[in-house]
Amino acid sequence: MSSYSAPLRDIRFTLFDLLDVESSFARLGFDEAGRDLVDPMLDEAARFAGTVLAPLNKAGDEHGVRYDKDSGSVTTAPGFAEAYRQFTEGGWSGLSAPAEFGGMGLPHVVGMPLEEMINSANLAWGNFPLLSHGAANALQHHGEDWQREVFLGKLVTGEWTGTMCLTEPHCGTDLGLLKTRAEPAADGAYSITGTKIFITAGEHDLTPNIVHLVLARLPDAPAGSKGISLFVVPKFKVGRDGAVGERNAVRCGAVEHKMGIHGSATCVMNFDGAQGWLVGQPHRGLMAMFTMMNTARLGVGLQGLGLAERALQNALRYARERLQSRSLSGPKYPDRPADPIIVQPDVRRMLLTCKALVEGGRALGYHAGLQVDLAAHAGSEEERRQADDLLGFLTPIVKGCLTEWGVECTYHALQCFGGHGYIAEHGMEQLARDARITTLYEGTTGIQALDLMGRKTMQLQGAGLKVFLGMVQAFCEQQAGNAALAEFVGPLAEKAREWQGLTMAIAKRAAGDPEEIGAAAHDYLFYSGYMVLAYWWARSVAAAEASSQPQAFRDAKRETARFYFARILPRTLAHKAAIETGPAPLLALDEAAFDA
Amino acid sequence: MSSYSAPLRDIRFTLFDLLDVESSFARLGFDEAGRDLVDPMLDEAARFAGTVLAPLNKAGDEHGVRYDKDSGSVTTAPGFAEAYRQFTEGGWSGLSAPAEFGGMGLPHVVGMPLEEMINSANLAWGNFPLLSHGAANALQHHGEDWQREVFLGKLVTGEWTGTMCLTEPHCGTDLGLLKTRAEPAADGAYSITGTKIFITAGEHDLTPNIVHLVLARLPDAPAGSKGISLFVVPKFKVGRDGAVGERNAVRCGAVEHKMGIHGSATCVMNFDGAQGWLVGQPHRGLMAMFTMMNTARLGVGLQGLGLAERALQNALRYARERLQSRSLSGPKYPDRPADPIIVQPDVRRMLLTCKALVEGGRALGYHAGLQVDLAAHAGSEEERRQADDLLGFLTPIVKGCLTEWGVECTYHALQCFGGHGYIAEHGMEQLARDARITTLYEGTTGIQALDLMGRKTMQLQGAGLKVFLGMVQAFCEQQAGNAALAEFVGPLAEKAREWQGLTMAIAKRAAGDPEEIGAAAHDYLFYSGYMVLAYWWARSVAAAEASSQPQAFRDAKRETARFYFARILPRTLAHKAAIETGPAPLLALDEAAFDA
User: Fold this and answer.
1) Pick from A421, A436, A552: nearest CA to A124
2) CB B346, CB A522: distance < 8 Å
3) Which residues of chain B have pLDDT under 70?
4) Does the distance separating the beta carbons of A559 and B589 come in below 8 Å?
5) Is B442 a catalytic residue?
6) Do A578 and B587 touch (CB under 8 A)?
7) Which overall architecture, per CATH, does domain A161-284 show?
8) Which of A325, A332, A549, A564 to mutate to test the interface with B (most CBs of B within 10 A)?
9) CA A228 to chain centre
10) Can you tell me the distance from the alpha carbon of A75 to that of A267, in angstroms, rounded to the nearest whole number?
11) What SUPFAM superfamilies does UniProt report for this protein, alphabetically (chains A, B) (predicted)?
């Protein structure tokens, strides 16, 4: 089985040295979120993830979830319920939820290391509390007062969990096609009828109640995505006074057999005239849904990061232990029967790729998380708007790139093990199987790419990109006289100009042909992701040098940054070249001729 | 479950239009291997793969192999044994084996479509007959007369299967470390003792005997890879007269639990003083092993191809059926509730990537297979040597690239299904899990890269590359006046010069620093793979235009070639840039500082 130990040094470096979150917290009024509170919290989170969750990871994979057809109940893997109890008792559930709803009121970004650690330790388990945050967010921003009072506190404390019931058999990406009906019933409630699929944590034995947030159509709803409303539908009915009543007419009809995350309950949920309550305005459910979705997308990005981190740790250990062949430049360990494979440039290529993507990805992910706090709490409207623009721009990059890099890193890490990586007992193949879901749910990578290229770049005229490019420019100007940073700052500034030019060229062509957007989207997403990481790697070197971190750590940051600029950033060349060929090579082939 | 129908049109196009194998067969003396024989054989192979093997694929995944600890026996999935009986009765086993040993005496390249179809239909099943070819090859070229008489015929007809027992727990890549001992016994036999792992088809219930080819050390063996000898060790002892005797002291100790190919028996084999016979010269076993290995490497390359083909077929079907959202340039099917996702540029990007890699990869793989025939049967020594050089150059590309592209294509194809791709019932995730082994066994991708860069390019001074570049040059000159090919021939000629220059630059730097080889190897492998495919795509357009294939097929070749040059070939930019940064970014970081 693979091991896991939380990378506390790099997590702290990212929060405190690189992002300097303490300055932000002071400005945002999070007076208690000082290092004296956060540091021990990180230690305790590392203990919980490493000693409670991580040991259950393999059992979750082997046992999976058990569905009982007669009762419609789902039993989670041994140990999952007890771990969940410890999770809620430890107060982890409401870490960054507002204190007024029972949370600890810490900044959102402080919750990100916890999420990362949970994902590294046990991704399948992490899916049970994951969507509670989004459900709570939706209720907080769109629910009525009584709904907040009745449901929100329970979700924040983790006493109940939440779900997002969006997808139906015939529609996932295109929710405008959904068919689930909501009909007015007594007492202002609605009767919900329809089938939802792929419902994460739709049914389980961890909590006495489950709060489903369900998209459905009212009788007078216009067709398409403008006729969708959001409803809260608890597993056990809840009155306006909070009293829990009888079983609601919602039932798990099956659990899916999947490639990975076997310990996560992916449910078919049948609503058969279930009692539900409208959340927000009629027909405006999609907007409320996006409140949930954006939270979830950052969370899924961190799933990719968490798996990549664990994969890297194990590949590194194995590469140091496994003795096989000699270095091409002569034995490095002549006293051993062979050199450890970490002396091989190709093994280092795989390890360094993981390290560069994991640590750079951590900066990207946490920085996006900080924007959640800034967008909500910054002092000026201008600052809040900038943070919101930046968050909108970064969210598809976090979801799209961190998950694809998670797949890539689990791939490389497995490959470092050779044939042993394919065998279940080493645990590497589970990480690879688990990672594979992250590029699919909460919007596929293709959907993230369209969100970045079409909505965030074209429709919003690149507002978030401009903010980010401003950060790049400011950093480059600030470091202009620093000879120790010149090897990074020069290429970064040059590539940033290229990025801007490339974006404008796409926009110009897209004005004449909307297919340009779809044709460029995938490559633009990754081009942008690698550019964002180039910025973070350059800044990481600067932050490490300015920090009190040990010399070996600072050396590692510099050498990994060099690796990143030499070996990863050139991927942008291929993405740029592909973008510049436009839609024709993608669209010319007749549909029928694909297999002529 | 995923479906499969053999792509007979493209297989025939590749064999007859593109490679013009009939001309080669006539020159090589394969008088009977005309189209009148091969065409119906392909039909029958397609029927066998599609109707006998393909339906067992999912059952093999679900059932796996059952190991009985008490008897050490292995039971294969339901239907596997019956399918194997049909396979041998149909004469498929010895298709391209010499007639003097009971084979059909057809060219090696004719067996490649059969292998591809088997791999598409049921990779796990295909692993049972797969290594018999290598075992037979080793005995044919290195065995004594009586060994050939006793074992070879049985392997050729498939009455018995063969294995390659190389890997031990502490050594896979570095066979010089192996510990299995061979001690002289009575009658010129040897007593073999040791443990081998990852032995494909090491034990099963398909045939009454199994012929293990085992690497072991003689008592006087020098240390390292020059002290390894090859032995033939049957499961049931066989006398020099061919009489089958008692059970030999070789026993399956366990079967591995793996990420995929569950239906394939991956065995721990314990040799406890088993009777074995020396094959070839003492201490020269590694050379004999390479005879097996090279055959197996081409075979594993075709595994990647086969899985990619099946994945593409299913993704294409799904992309045509799945209705979701509208084209960005307006509804393409206004009469339907949404457009099929195949109208989306990003879905087409994934499908076309698969199509370009599969069809280009088929040309690459079959062309390499043709070199096996030319190297053995061409009229002049010069021609045989050229074919052998080319085969040596192409083998790591076939193994390395076709398997990595197999992983990539099964990835894209699963992604086309969205969340449904992750669910077992659609069969896409099985293809992805099965594909993952191909980059690991028979030498990881890193080993293929070192073989190409270190041995085939540096040590052999690029002899095979020169032959290939000669083909490219001849084709470009031949097509120089063809305006319809200019869009491909121009870039191909230019990139070929770049390839040559890049190779020479690496060689020059490697003379001063051997680490250059390991640092360049991975990127050079893929740079070369994409260049080889660029050649085949340009030639495919030319061959399609000159053929009597339907217009839609010819259009598809041209548009896919355009896609390839626009969207795939630019990957070489990133590989070239990475190579040019040399070893420093890979080697500078201290081993201990990776997780400082």
Assistant:
1) A436
2) yes
3) none
4) yes
5) yes
6) no
7) Beta Barrel (2.40)
8) A325
9) 25
10) 12
11) Acyl-CoA dehydrogenase C-terminal domain-like, Acyl-CoA dehydrogenase NM domain-like
Phi, psi of A272 (to 5 degrees): -125, 70
Q: What is the pLDDT of residues B191-217, one digit of tens each?
A: 999 999 999 999 999 999 999 999 999
Among positive and negative, which fits the CA dihedral B231, B232, B233, B238? negative
C-alpha–C-alpha distance, residues B520 and B524, integer Å: 6
- Please say whether the structural domain B8-141 has been given the CATH code 1.20.210.10: no
Q: Which residues pair with B231 in a beta bridge?
A: B214, B278
Token pair, residue A311, equals: 């994969």
Residues B450-489 pLDDT 10s:
999 999 999 999 999 999 999 999 999 999 999 999 999 9
Q: Which has the closest alpha carbon to A172: B433, B342, B338, B426?
A: B338
Q: What is the largest CA-CA distance in chain B?
A: 82
Residues of chain B with CATH 2.40.110.20: 160-287
* Closest partner CB to B256 (pick from A176, A423, A586): A423
Q: Please list the residues that pair with A266 across neighbouring strands.
A: A200
Distance from CA of B54 to the nearest CA of A (A): 20
The answer to whether A329 contacts B198, with C-beta atoms less than 8 Å apart, is: no
Taking residues A501-517, report their average pLDDT: 97
Q: Cα–Cα distance between A309 and A304 in angstroms, integer? A: 9
Residue B491, chain A, CB below 8 Å: the answer is no
> Among all chains, which residue has been given the structure tokens 């994409």?
B530
Tokens describing residue B422: 């992750």
CATH number for B160-287: choose from 3.40.190.10, 2.40.110.20, 3.40.50.170, 2.60.40.3210: 2.40.110.20
What is residue A579's three-state secondary structure? Answer: helix
- Chain B residues 430-469 with CB within 8 Å of chain A: 432-433, 436-437, 439-441, 444-446, 449-450, 454
Q: Is A596 on the interface with B (CB under 8 A)?
A: yes
Residue A137, class by beta-carbon neighbours within 10 Å (0-12 exposed, 13-18 middle, 19+ buried)? Answer: buried
Q: Between the CA atoms of B427, B429, B435 and B437, what dihedral angle is there, to the nearest 10 degrees? A: -120
CATH for the stretch B289-585 = 1.20.140.10
